[in-house]
Amino acid sequence: MPDALPTPADINAMVRAGFPGSTNECVEIGPRWALAKVVPTEDSIRPGGFISGPTQFGLADGALWYAVFAAIGRIELMALTSELSIRYLRPCVGTTLWARGTIDAAGRGNVVGTVRVWTDDNETKPSAVAQGTYVRPS
After folding, report:
1. With respect to CATH, is domain 8-16+23-135 assigned 1.10.443.10?
2. Domain spans of the chain?
3. What does the pLDDT look like over 87-130, one tens digit per residue?
4. Rounded distance, CA 135 to CA 80, Å?
5. Which of 51, 53, 71, 115 could disulfide-link 92, Cβ–Cβ 3.0 to 4.6 Å?
6. For residue 54, is pLDDT > 70?
7. 3-state secondary structure 84-108
8. How far is CA 135 from CA 107, 108, 138, in A?
9. Is the dihedral of CA 111, 89, 62, 96 positive or negative?
């Protein structure tokens, strides 16, 4: 495990500078995990008030990326998504979308993790689960 973790403030500053269109936010980070959130915009809400699948997918990808930073102990812009699959479990309705990325395995070349996505304060009833792999730069 790395000696130091990047802070949520460091991660959010990097995201704002490098990806100004992103509204994802890193809220907490710990050894091999990260918690992220986004407040859905009107554009991300589907008929019936459901938060769109692409919005959930984007936050899952972000949460796992932040968790990779925790696993390797630094912000690494060139840690790239190799694959990410998601299963939508139930309609996603709420005012804040959350995602917790947890690292399952971290090697020299790849980092694999799992993400749970939910709304508001109900982590026990996820709207989606995802698993993905990030490739670390050589």
Report:
1. no
2. 8-16+23-135
3. 999 999 999 999 999 999 999 999 999 999 999 878 889 999 99
4. 5
5. 51
6. yes
7. EEEEECCCCCCCCEEEEEEEEEECC
8. 10, 9, 9
9. negative
